[in-house]
Amino acid sequence: MKGITRFSNSLMEKYLPDPFLFVIILTVVIFVLGLGLTNSSPVQMVAFWGEGFWALLAFSMQMVLVLVTGFVLASSPIFKKGLGKLASLAKSPGSAIILVTLVSLAASWINWGFGLVIGALFAKELAKRVEHVDYRLLIASAYSGFIIWHAGFSGSIPLSIATAGHPFADKIGVIPTSETIFASYNLVIVVALIIIVPLLNRLMMPKKEDTVTVDPRLLVEPIDEVLPAKSDMTPAERLENSWILSMIIGALGIAFIVYYFVQNGFALTLDLVNFMFLFLGIIFHGTPRKYLIAVQEAVKGAGAIIVQFPFYAGIMGMMTASGLAGVMSEAFVNISSAETLPLFAFLSAGLVNFFVPSGGGQWAVQAPIMLEAAEMLGSDPAKVAMAVAWGDAWTNMIQPFWALPALAIAGLKAKDIMGFCVIVLIVSGVVIGLGLLFL
Q1: What Å distances lie between residue 156 and 323, 365, 385, 388, CA to CA?
Q2: Which of 15, 80, 187, 303 lies at a C-alpha separation of 20 to 30 Å from 367?
Q3: Rounded CA separation 138/131 (Å)
Q4: What is the per-residue pLDDT across 50-82, written as a single tens digit (0 to 9) for each?
Q5: What is the SS3 assignment for 213?
């Protein structure tokens, strides 16, 4: 395993371009495929790309806030103390790898945005406390927990088809989560990954001479600025350093969170996660001044998200408007039977996810084809839907789109962790594929 890992890391470090170059290459590839595999003309492909370019603006802002509010919350004294106590459970590099993977898996199953941020932040805390742990593998392990998000409480596809009036209700009706998220086959796959992925990450630990560590001092947040005496402060400075204002607005935020849970139960959304992170950060930092300093530090890592997400929206525009995503899906459907359709739906979704890295957007493209195939072949539509969900989550392991927040928090590049993630992709693909085929 160590030899395979070393080869994979070497390959990624040499040949994987920066995520920005990666998305440019993907743009060119999809443009050419659209011309070759669909009836779209060059002018039409340009139009599809440009018209879709800003389709993810709202989502891009959500992802920026995931990064910023999560980073700010984790830099607060109370939260750092809590993460520190949890990190103290790890007594060796191996236990640190297993612990961060388990925390990320659990958090991602609860909510994907929560898992992305908490995993990376916890990995940084472990890197400060555990000597001789490979920092690349630590962050890769934190990201690997993201593999199960679409089979959990925030899975966009199972939640969509469980909602009355969803776009495909006339074809499959409303499918409760008892037949998707909480179906026996899905839970078996989730449990299998919770056992296998931490052990796999542990087995990938490099030899001592190949271990890449980080100086813990580089991970320490800047020391709080020295404030002037209260008597020397201007009225404006007193307001900036008043804990009363933070507590008032923080209490208002907490009140809404309580109200939301009373009205909706424990149904986390990305907006609510960001809302919770934001207002808990305000409270835990104590004063508006300290909170704003933390925000200024956090936004430094948001540049990649701001620049790259519009390009992915453009790719998604070309994939959907040209019909290219449908062509890819139909190729897999044509070789499927009732028994194998979930497996091929999973594989096709994994391929499409490279170019349409959005669970909801991917389902809108693939659902008409996959659900019609399920009806024709006599396959369970609930299982086919979950197969698409698993495919969407699966290739996220080597899709830089979703890794950007974690990489920004960690201060690493995609090529630093993708060698490990490729191995997680292969092993988890076998586990998920076998589960969908035989359970």
Answers
A1: 22, 14, 11, 11
A2: 187
A3: 12
A4: 999 998 888 888 878 888 888 888 788 888 888
A5: coil
